[in-house]
Amino acid sequence: MSSRILLLGGTTEALRLARRMNPDAIYSLAGLGRVPDDLPCQVRVGGFGGAEGLAGYIREQGIELLLDLTHPYAAQISANAARAAELSGIACWALRRPGWQAGEGDDWREVDDWAGLVKALNDFQRPLFTLGREPLEHLHEIPLHQHWTVRCLTAQQAVPRAEIIGARGPFALDEERALFARLGTDVLISKNGGSASTEPKLQVARELGVPVVLLRRPELPAVEREFAQLEDLWGALQRRLV
Ligand code: NAP
Predict the structure, then answer these.
(1) Which tens digits make up the pLDDT trace of 147-165?
(2) Do the beta carbons of residue 48 and residue 70 sit within 8 Å?
(3) Atom 10 of ligand 1: nearest residue by CA position
(4) CATH for 108-215, among 3.40.50.150, 3.40.630.30, 3.40.50.300, 3.20.20.80?
(5) Rounded-to-integer distance, Cα 182 and Cα 204, Å
(6) Is 167 left (phi over 0), alpha (psi -120 to 50) or beta?
(7) I need a labelling partner for 103 at 20 to 30 A (CA). Which of 19, 87, 134, 212 fits?
(8) Which atom of ligand 1 lies nearest, measured to the CA of 79?
(9) How much distance in Å is there from the Cα of 184 to the middle of ligand 1?
């Protein structure tokens, strides 16, 4: 049996899977990051126009299996994927990467949103933000006793009391150690991404006794099959395709 596949991506695992896809599979990206031009499958970029738009695209393209390998914090597209699969009567399989777990020596504090985060940071002076672009919208609200470092995909000019670093993972442990040392980081802010490629910062925080403020994971919809590991999803895909 063969299956025409639509793979929703934007993560390292999704790109890894896209590299193994057939020419009739479609790899879909929102268009915020780099668009690969060396894949064996087709690539499309940009939103579909909500769940209905996605369901329309699925029908139009004769898609038979939807794979959701988007980031655990990309809750909108995952909700759309589950709904669109339901509307079109096709299966949706998802990679639901497990979150990181605090271990010995960790001081992790979970918050629900930006307001909770600001409150949690009040006692610190040198926060290092590693949760994307959201802090950039708040650069005019930096408390007088703080200097921020924001690490996101693209660098920007520094503003008073903030440095904006552009970088994309994977991040090496030694580089993370050097960054914390250079910045004098006294608190780390992160999503609970669960990816090995961004995990070294947590080890450095543990080594230095630096607290970590984590943005709580959003709820994601249940879909027909969920996998914690990419290789398990790949195995199931191989079995479906024979
Ligand atoms: P989101 O809030 O869940 O989605 C916003 C909208 O972007 C969706 O409604 C959809 O537009 C479009 N979209 C998202 N992913 C898409 C995809 N793979 N293909 C086509 N359209 C897509 O997502 P987000 O948090 O902004 O993340 C955007 C992308 O970046 C995702 O693909 C995600 O995997 C990747 N990413 C996100 C994070 C993160 O922390 N959120 C981190 C790393 C990578 P329409 O409704 O118009 O279809």
Answers:
(1) 999 999 999 999 999 999 9
(2) no
(3) 47
(4) 3.40.50.150
(5) 13
(6) beta
(7) 134
(8) 3
(9) 33
